[in-house]
Amino acid sequence: MSGTEGAGPDGPGNLFSGLLPQAGRQVFPAGHQLFSAGDPADHLYYLCDGAVKLFGAEAAGTENVLHVLRAGDLVGLSALVDGRAYALGAEVMETATVLLLRRVDLLHWLHRHPAAVMQALSRLGERYRMMAEDLLALKVLTPRQRLCRYLVQQLGPEPDTGPAGLVLTERHAVIAARVGLTPENLSRAFSRLRMDGVVLHHRRVMVAEVGGLRRLAAGIGEEPPDCADFRD
Hints:
Layout: E1 6-7, E2 24-28, E3 33-35, E4 43-57, E5 63-69, E6 74-75, H1 78-81, E7 89-102, H2 103-112, H3 115-140, H4 143-155, E8 164-167, H5 172-179, H6 183-192, E9 198-201, E10 204-207, H7 210-217
Antiparallel strand pairs: 1-6, 2-7, 3-7, 4-5, 4-6, 4-7, 8-10, 9-10
Helix pairs in contact: 4-7
């Protein structure tokens, strides 16, 4: 399944800022499906706020969330690439305000701004790399490691060691989707991390030793023997 349905245009001064005033603004509630895999890719969605998940379905009907997009992201990049069909489905996870761009308008705009084509390809490549890393994590990391990886991403590059704290800005269901767990199993995963000095209280996470968390995220260290009972 392709993982190139979303890309981030880097905020207000993004690549398509000159085109956005032509877009229609719409608000969609949680649970609304923007498109399904296989639908004609004739629109591109600029996400102003909220969250949208990209997902594929296995033959047995199991849904696999491959990526979660946030404000500033583009949803439906197949419309930009070939216009044939969306490779993934897209569903709103948090009430989302989007700007709806027609593919024909987008192509006309790029034709008038040829220098933007290479920039667009660069952005596509960057997003593809990020999504490929997320997909690889879903395949090779345990749920515990994926949750640690998510927390490390939220902490950023600093600090390297010592205690730290962070406030989770995403809803429980969104975090669960991003790390490939059900909301119930995410709660259990957080509980298991207490033994590693990671404590969740409401939306605040306290980390006793950041270096240890980074090692866990990198897969360094032994997996607890009872970890398998909350695998996805």
